[in-house]
Structure formats: C-alpha cells, structure tokens
Design brief:
Protein name: Carbamoyl phosphate synthase arginine-specific small chain
Strand content: 25-35%
CATH architecture of the largest domain: 3-Layer(aba) Sandwich
Subunit structure: Heterodimer composed of 2 chains; the small (or glutamine) chain promotes the hydrolysis of glutamine to ammonia, which is used by the large (or ammonia) chain to synthesize carbamoyl phosphate.
EC number: 6.3.5.5
Number of strands: 23
Number of domains: 2
CATH topology of the largest domain: Rossmann fold
Helix content: 10-25%
Oligomer: single chain
Largest sheet: 10 strands, mixed
InterPro entries: Anth_synth/Amidotransfase, CarbamoylP_synth_ssu, CarbamoylP_synth_ssu_N, CarbP_synth_ssu_N_sf, Class_I_gatase-like, CPSase_GATase1, GATASE
Family: Belongs to the CarA family.
C-alpha cells in the first residue's frame, strides 16, 4: 500500500516528466551501421538524413554528450556512446561573450565535430533549464546523422576486441543496400585533420591579460582557452603550422592544444618546436595532440593504440612532481585520443615520463628534467575536462604562474620594444562544423 508521501512523490515524478520537451522524432527512418570488419547493426535514424563514412570509436562518458560531440578531436569519427540513454537534457544555446571569463561558445566549438553518432536510445523528451533544442534537431541543423535502437554494448565489445574500425552510417534507402566493399571505406587518419580544423587566421582573446601566452591551434577545445583567460592570460591563437620562432620573444609562454588524427601529419610543427625548445627558455605546455608534438620534438615516436582512450574515468599515475602534481598519486582524468607516445629506455636526454596510464601502462605525459634547465610539460589527458573530473585542473594555474614568474624575471624596462609582425582578427573560436 502506498503511503501519502509515496503517492506525492509519484505525482511529482509524473509532473516533471510531463514538463519535459518533446523532441518531435517524426516518422521512423531506417538506418544501419556497417563496420569494415563485416558486422552490421540496424536501427532508426535521427538527425540529418544522410549517409557518412568515418572511423568508429566509443566513449565511456556518462554525461557531457554535447561537449564530446563538439570536441574537435572527434573530427571524422563515428562516435558510439556506451551510456544507453543520450539526449535527455537537450542542447544549450551555444553562444558566450568574448571576455576574461569566456571565449565565445558554451560548448567546445561552434558546431558538431564528429561525423555521426550512435546511441542505444535517443531521448524523445529533454529537460534542462538551459536547453533550447533536442539532440535530434541539433544534429539535423548541423547536417550530422545519428542512429538509435542498436545494441551499443555489442558494438563496444567488438571495438574493444578488434580495435577502432572504419565504418559507415547508412540512412534511408542506403540502409537497405548491401554493405560497402572494403575499398570503399574512408580512413580519416590518412588525411591531415588538424589542417582542416585549425584556425586560418591569428586572433587574440582577453588582450588586457597580465601575461601573454601563444597557442598553436591543432583543434583546441574551447575550455582550454577558457581555462587560460580565466587565469588572466592574454591568449594569441596561431595556425598549427605557424613558425612561432618568428614572434616568440613577444610572449611569456607557449601552449600546444589538442587535436584530431595522426600526430605524424604535423611533423612540421614538431620540427619548429624542436628549435623553440633548444633556443627559448620560457614555459611550454601541451595537451593531447600537443603532448605528442612535444614528444616528437624531444625525439620520441608515436603509435596508434588499439582502440584509444575516450571517457571521463581514466586513472593516471604521476611519476614525477611538478607544481600541483605530486609523484605517486593517482589522478582520474578525461581523455580522447587514438595515438600515444612510445615508452622507451633510455628516455631522451633532458626528458622524463610524467604520467602513466594505470589501465594500459601507456605514456600519459612527459616533462623536461630539472637538470635540463627547461620548463616544458605535456599531458595526454585533458586537465580542463568539460566534462569530467577536475583532479588536474590546477595544472593551468601552475603553467600561468610559471609564465608570470618568467615575465618578472625577464623584465627589463630599457629593452621594451613595440610588437611587430602580428596581425590579429577579432576574437573567435576557430573550430567550426
């Protein structure tokens, strides 16, 4: 027998469900996910009514599907969410101010970056105080197809066992056709995805900041920029292959962002950085792709992982202490990468491993040694998360503090010179759909 309290709670639940916004799914359109390894999964379509090829990957993130889908590191990928229900809190209005607290967008870029999304159950109702549309209408507006009603557990098991696999999402009449031939599948890793997504023009954020930091944009998440400007940094963003050495004396630090694809496609940036590290003694920090570029500049090699690490629950062990990071402690991190740096013995002179993954023992970061006299750090995970744990967020504070300290140490009023060689545009977030 229900108590009065139980009946009251049940009424409240029914009321809240009734207030949720319907996603207007319309008529069911057939859709299929074909994998190059021969498997096919049949479901129904949502989002854009078109078929696409891509690299099929999975993410174990439970929340933040909007941040994942707008992360430029997912460029060219068919994103499978292991969490069964996706879309229940809708999609927010993706506009923010350009100031010392924000960078123009609420999410991680201006549009959806993944090629397609695969979910077990797309929400037909969404409810959140910031939501303005459903995930289905959002995908349709950005011309991104989705498939729902498939067994994402089985897909994830396949990808875990056989590794990341090329695939195709076929929609409508295409879903009724036979799977593509093996030679028809498109491999995004063969293209320079960074060049597709990186800014083409130099631009500046928070120009009145107290410390000047340059960023090489390999496909930067907005929250990386946000994490820097909120620490009072003026950030100038450059294309990925810009030779920073031409303007390096105008800055107090260099940041290398995350990005999609194979880091070996960006060897030009690694060679430029090698000269920077050799000739410049100011702080350098890299995240994800930025970490791999630092590693290649140091003489390490990169390799393609079996299925990569994607999710908000990856534990890493700190092997060295630096700032807020303490050796011997395990940090839970957010990650999204298919490639990693090879762990070799001996490590290049002047360098040491910084973090190692507790699950697969892959290298999760490197740093310059104290004896080298350099201030260089790289991490494979995302300290800024968005979404995910914030165990390592203070690494941004550490980096900006090092830049400020270096600025004070180098301050010589008699040598102040006007800036030259920089033509910047109005602030904007470079990554677009």
């Amino acid at each position: 027998m229900f108590t009065r309290q139980a009946i009251s709670t049940l009424r409240l639940v029914r009321l809240s469900r009734g207030l949720a916004t319907h996603a207007n799914s319309g008529l069911a359109v057939p859709a299929s996910l074909h994998l190059k390894t021969g498997q096919t999964f049949k479901g129904t379509s949502f989002g854009a009514p078109r078929s696409v090829f891509g690299e099929t990957v999975f993410s174990t993130s439970i929340t933040s599907y909007t941040e994942s889908m707008t992360d430029p590191s997912y460029r060219g990928q068919i994103l499978v969410f292991t969490t069964p229900l996706i879309g229940n809190y809708g999609v927010p209005h993706n506009v923010a101010p350009f100031d010392s607290q924000d960078v123009g967008v609420v999410l991680e870029s201006q549009g959806i970056q993944c090629a397609a999304v695969v979910v077990g159950d797309v929400a037909e109702k969404f409810s959140h105080y910031t939501a303005v549309e459903s995930i289905a209408s959002w995908c349709k507006r950005h011309n991104v197809p989705g498939i729902t009603g498939v067994d994402t557990r089985a897909i994830t098991t396949l990808l875990r066992d056989q590794g990341t696999t090329l695939g195709r999402v076929a929609v409508g009449t295409d879903a009724l056709l036979p799977p593509p031939a093996a030679e028809e599948y498109w491999d995004p890793s063969l293209e320079n995805l960074v060049d597709q997504i990186s800014t083409k023009q130099v631009y500046e954020l928070n120009p009145t900041g107290s410390v000047k930091i340059a960023m090489l944009d390999f496909g930067a998440k907005a929250n990386i920029l946000r994490s820097l400007v909120r620490r009072d940094a003026a950030v100038t963003v450059f294309p990925w292959n810009y030779d920073f050495n031409k303007v390096r004396d105008q800055f107090d630090g260099l940041f290398l962002s995350n990005g999609p694809g194979d880091p070996k496609q960006c060897m030009e940036a690694a060679l430029n950085l090698r000269r920077t590290i050799a000739e410049w003694n100011k702080p350098i920090f890299g995240i994800c792709m930025g970490n791999q570029i630092i590693g290649m500049a140091a003489g390490l090699d990169s390799y393609r992982m079996t299925f990569g690490n994607r999710g908000h629950n990856q534990p890493v062990l700190a092997l060295a202490s630096s700032g807020s990071i303490k050796a011997g402690r395990v940090y839970v991190t957010s990650q999204n990468h298919q490639y990693a740096l090879k762990l070799q013995e001996p490590f290049p002179e002047g360098w040491e491993p910084f973090f190692i993954n507790c699950n697969d023992s892959s290298v999760e970061g490197i740093k310059s040694t104290d004896a080298s006299g350099k201030q260089v750090w790289g991490v494979q995970f995302h300290p800024e998360s968005a979404g995910g744990p914030l165990d390592t967020i203070e690494m941004f504070t550490d980096f900006v503090s090092h830049c400020k300290a270096q600025k004070v140490a180098n301050y010589q009023p008699a040598d102040v010179k006007p800036q030259v060689g920089l033509e910047t545009e109005a602030p904007r977030v470079a990554a677009t759909a």
